[in-house]
Amino acid sequence: MKLTELFRRDAMSLSFEVFPPKTSTAFDSVKAAVEEIAGLHPSFMSVTYGAGGGTSRYTLDIAKNIHDLYGVPTLAHLTCVSSTRETVREKIAQIRAAGIENVMALRGDLTPELEVGDRSSWAYRHAIDLIRDIKESGADFCIGGACYPEIHPESANQAEDIKHLKEKVDAGCEFLTTQMFFDNNLLYNFLYKIREAGITVPIIPGIMPITNANQVERAVKLSGSFMPQRFKSLVDKFGSSPAAMKQAGIAYATDQIIDLYANGIKNVHVYSMNKPDVAAKIQANLSDIIG
Ligand code: FAD
Q: What is the pTM of this model?
C-alpha cells in the first residue's frame, strides 16, 4: 500500500522505524527484533539506510521481510550522497522488484571526508536530485522526504531551509517525516511556517523514546534537538536507574504522541530503534486512543 493512501484516511496511525544491522553477524538478532515489531501490526514500518550504502543490502532484505511476511506497509529509506547514478538506479529497481511501494528519499549525512572533498563530480548533492531521479526512472513510488522542525544543521536559517523543503515537495515528495524533537511547540511553530510557505503534504512527526541516559547525548548530537527542562529533570532523576529511565522515557514519548493526536495530527512515527518492548508498550499505552 502506498502511504499516501494511509495518510488520506481519517483514522490515526502509529508507525515504527527500524534500522538494518551493520554486519552480517548481527543480521539474525536484528531480523528477530524487527519481526517482533512487525508482529504488532503497526500502520507502517520504515527501514533506514546506511549512507554510502554500507548496510544497503540489509535494508532491502529487512524491508522485504516486513512486507512479505507480515503484510505491514513498508517504507524503504534510500540515501544518495556519494553514490553513482547507476547504483541508485539499481537500488530503485531492486526496491520496486521487492514489491515495496514507498521510498524515503534522503541525501544522507556528510562524513568528514565528504565535507572537505571536491563536490564537483557528485551525481547527487541534495535529496531533491534523488527525488527527480526516482521520478525520471518511471518507478511508481510514493516518495517521502525528511524535514527539520529545528532547522537542518547546514542551513543558514529557517527561511532558507523551508525554501529548499518547498522545492523538494514540488519535485515530487508526497509526505515529510520530521527529525526527532522533544518539545511539541517546536513542531507546531514549524507546521505554521511551512503551511504558510505553501507546503501542504502530510507531515509525520518523528518521536524518539529515550529509554536510557546514554542515548540522550547521542540523540542531541545527532539531531541538535532542544531538550526541555521537563525532559532534563526526568533524565537527572531517573537516568541512573535503567528500569526507571525506560519507564519514564516511554511515558514521555507517549505523552508527546497523545498531545500531537489531541492537536489534530493524525499520523505519528516512532523511532523504535529495534526495541520491540518499547514499541509494544507505546502501542499499548495508546490502544484506546488509536483504536
Ligand atoms: P536535503 O533535503 O538535501 O537537505 C540537506 C541540507 O541541504 C539542508 O540544509 C537543506 O536546506 C539544504 N538543501 C536542500 N536542497 C538544497 C538545494 N537545492 N540547494 C542548496 N541547499 C539545499 N540518514 C541516513 O544515512 N539514512 C537514513 O535512513 C536516514 N533516515 C532519516 C530519516 C529522517 C526522518 C530524517 C529526518 C533524517 C534521516 N537521515 C538518514 C539523516 C539525513 O540523511 C541527514 O539529516 C542529512 O544531513 C540530510 O538529508 P536530507 O534528505 O534532509 O537532505
A: 0.97
